[in-house]
Amino acid sequence: MKYSYFPGCSLEKNAAAYHISSMAITGPLGIDLQEIDDWNCCGATEYISLNLTASYALIARNLAQATKNPDSKQVVAPCSACYLNLKKCDRYMAESKKLSEKVNQALAAGGLSYKPGTLKVRHLLDVVVNDVGLDEVAAKVTKPLTGLRIAPYYGCMIVRPEFKPNGNFDDPEYPTTLDTLLKVLGAEVIDFPMKAHCCGGHMTQINEGTGFELIRRLVKGADDYHADMIVTLCPMCQLNLDAFQGSMNNYFKTDYKMPVLYFTQMMGIAFGLEPAALGFGSELVDARPALGKIGMEIPEPEAPPKKKKDDKSLPMPASSKREVK
Amino acid sequence: MTVVATQARAPTFFKQVIAATPGECHLERCIQCGTCGGSCPSGNDMDHTPRAIFAMIEAGMKEEVLKSNTPWYCVSCYYCMERCPQEVHITDIMYTLKRIAVQEKLYDSSTAPDFSKTFINWVENYGRAFELGLMSMHMLKHNPFGVFKIAGMGVGMVTKGRMAFTPTRIRDIDGLKSILEKAKELEVSA
Fold it and tell me: Is the separation of the CB atoms in A153 and A195 below 8 Å?
């Protein structure tokens, strides 16, 4: 099965673990991801806030580049924001002739064009579960994740908006695709009530009180259910829940240590692949204690970071006025 | 008489918002039920809930709408849009309000527009987003002392190899620049 692949900027560096593990698991499953030549940023949620035509032209350039691939009419994105942007661009260009004309006039300046409806945009999770199928996945499991309690976390843009009447591959408020997949891998999956709630997106950069609260309720939710880890499918969700978990703990004076990993990493473990080939160790909240439960040992990172004595070692005075609004 | 005729022909704010939103946004269908505000994870911090904003748009309260922090607190989670019984494309309308507010220089004191501008600046010149550049520039500009608060996180990201120190430039950056330039021209002429 061949697909055009749109990795997105996050997967280049910050979410390299997601890219590496995606590459590692798609091979054995017969998914051939062919990276779109010279792809560009999808604009995330920022470009659309300032320019309409330019933001759609930015996204459409990727679709135009993807049409050059003779082997596939489907584009796969592992990042939820990229997935939605690509999908929305195709849909709104089809819905609005005016937008489509303008976008194509702009694309022509770069020698490109895109006819809406030419490509189908898919999320990697959808492809794994619905194209490959759970039976195929189950057949590849050699080291089941038995004993690991996982909170499956979808976030927003993979399931919403649903765009009726065509719909999406999963329910907009109570999705189950990832739950089912993780069960097939042998994990104990909790019925996570926050599974499709928002991680806050860029809010940590705009208003930390608002941003940290959105992160807190997700981490607390998983912790209340005694989850060993949160497993997600979006680099923005992973960044917020993992990298900002420490800052969130400082803000609320809490002490959560909830590891946040990608579903592709967990698939890789269950398939018996080497942890080194799955990008483990790049998470900021240590996942080793949780992974130890299934007998997995992740070697220390090559250049161990300087000794940290938890939060107190930060070079700042203890703040007395950091209060929750 | 002439004045009345001119006013009748002038696009109302309501029409302006609909025209500036891609696809079929269905704003005219809003029945003021408030499902949107009740579903919003950041509704608490907004000056006006989306429902109120839509009533204000219809009432022609352009300046109040564009000066409110509401669109800038939208986190793009699409819960409102999903639950809206009238299928109003609420999230897309929030993006429209951001764009009009920036164009008409009416946005509130939020640093959000600037965050978007810094982000876009990297994209327009390299073709790819650059997280380290974005975060550090944004922080230095708006909250230099905030650096200490996120120092632990920043160090962690760097030692874990998750921060690039230079942005990636796409091969055909010139082509992309021409496309974006042309798109902006078309936007103005609309």
Answer: yes
Could A16 and B76 be called an inter-chain contact, meaning their C-beta atoms sit closer than 8 Å? no
B71 contact partners, CB below 8 Å, separation of at least 6: B94, B95, B97, B98, B101
Q: Are A35 and A7 in contact (CB under 8 A)?
A: yes
pLDDT digits (tens, 9 = 90+) for A121-177: 999 999 999 999 999 999 999 999 999 999 999 999 999 999 877 789 999 999 999
Smallest CA–CA distance, residue A145 to chain B, in Å, is 25
A297-301 contacts, C-beta under 8 A, 24 or more apart: A299/A275, A301/B159, A301/B160
At residue B70, the 3 state secondary structure works out as helix
Tokens 């004309």 correspond to what residue? A101
Is A174 part of the contact surface with chain B (CB cutoff 8 Å)?
no
Q: Which residue pairs from A236-240 have beta carbons closer than 8 angstroms and sit at least 24 positions apart in sequence?
A: A236/A10, A236/A79, A236/A80, A236/A81, A236/A155, A236/A199, A236/A201, A237/A80, A237/A153, A237/A155, A237/A199, A238/A15, A238/A18, A238/A262, A239/A10, A239/A14, A239/A15, A240/A199, A240/A200, A240/A201, A240/A204, A240/A211, A240/A214, A240/A215
Give the C-alpha separation, B72 to B109, whole Å.
10
CB–CB of A46 and B115 under 8 A? yes
Q: Are B88 and B25 in contact (CB under 8 A)?
A: yes
Residue A86: pLDDT band with limits 50, 70, 90: very high
- The DSSP secondary structure of A216-241, one letter per residue, reads HHHHHHHHHTT-SEEEES-HHHHIII
pLDDT tens per residue, range A8-22? 999 999 999 999 999
* Interface check A298 vs B, CB under 8 A: no
> Which conformational region is residue A76 in: left (phi greater than 0), alpha (psi within -120 to 50 degrees), or beta?
beta
Q: Round to whole Å and give the CA distance between B57 and B154.
A: 41
Looking at residue A276, its pLDDT comes to 87
Binary contact (A157, B123; C-beta < 8 A): no
Name the residue with tokens 């942005």.
B167
Residues 6+ apart with CB under 8 A from A117: A90, A94
What is the model's pTM?
Answer: 0.91
Q: What is the ipTM of this complex?
A: 0.89
CA pseudo-torsion sign A112, A34, A46, B143: negative
| Cis bond upstream, residue B167 (ω within 30) | no
Q: Which of A29-43, A203-217, B135-149, B157-171 has the lowest mean pLDDT?
A: B135-149
